[in-house]
Each structure stands twice: as C-alpha cells, then as structure tokens.
Amino acid sequence: MNICRKGAAFILTAVCALTALVFFGRLAGETAPPAPTAEPVVEQAIQEPERPAEPEIPAEGQENAEAPEPEEPEPLMASPHFAMAEYRCDCAGYCDGWPCEMRPELLEKIEALRCWYDQPVIITSGVRCAARNEEVGGVSWSFHKRGCAADLYCPGVGVGDLTQTAQKLGMNVLPYYSSGYVHVEVLP
Ligand SMILES: [Zn+2]
Ligand SMILES: [Zn+2]
Q: pTM for the complete prediction?
C-alpha cells in the first residue's frame, strides 16, 4: 500500500511539475513577444508624424509663394478708371456675364464723366441678359441688353447735376431722382 501511495504521490507531483512548466513556459512565451513589438510601435508612431511633417511645411510654403502670383493678374480694363468686370451682367447664372459686349463709345463717355468730376463713379448695372433684365423690371427694348446702357451714380454729386453733365458728354440720360442714380445710354 505504501508503494502504491508513494507511486501515486510521485505521479501527482510529476504532473503538477509538468503543468507548472508548461504554464510558466507559455506565460514566458506569451509575455515575452509583446515587449519587443511594443517598442517598434512606439518608434514608428514617433517617426511617422515627423516624416510627413517635414515635406508638408515646404509644400505649403511653396503653394503660398506660388498662389499669389496667379491671383494678381491685371484686371481687364474697360477704360482707365473702370474694370470691364464692373459692367458684366450681375445675374445669378442665367448667362456667363457677357450676353454681348459693352459699346466702346459708352465706355469712353462714362470715363469722361468720371474724369469730369475727378471722383469715383459707381456702376450699378451694365450689360444684362434678357432674364436679368426682366428680373429687375427693365423694359423689353432696354439698351442694357445690347451693351449700350449703364446705371451709375457718383457719391456726393446730385442726380440733376450728373444728368446735365452726362448729357453734355453726349449720352442720353434717364434720371432716377428717388433712387439716386442715372441711366445713361448711347444709340446702338
Ligand atoms: Zn445674365
Ligand atoms: Zn438703366
């Protein structure tokens, strides 16, 4: 009986020892790998942001340096004091802004009007497409649709004064006293 007990105790001890070896062996095997893998992850995490950051800064700097150049083209001038864009159709997209060209004779006379007062003259309406003309309540035969008319005002100058001067310079004028601007036009 003693032999049997000793044998059983030995087997139990051996099983426990083997189990412990396997268990700790696995633990050692499992805990060991994360340590080396964790370090490279940290290194990569530090390196990755640094690498893109270096090329991004010069790239942005180049874009900023290059961007202003195309943004500064000289505007197309209708006359010395007026950009052509001031006469474009101001509709919300019915046309591309130029249903027709502005009449050069009118542009010259408006420039002369501006030089007469030596003060800024504000164009509130130049050429209009048919849709825009209808939208603002223009008459169907409006000269705005043919690039032969413009609405304008000169801050500090009365509508009556502006009307007389525009007429002297050879324009047909419709004064809008209540609205504070004049409609000027030349024959097509
Ligand atoms: Zn338009
Ligand atoms: Zn008008």
A: 0.63
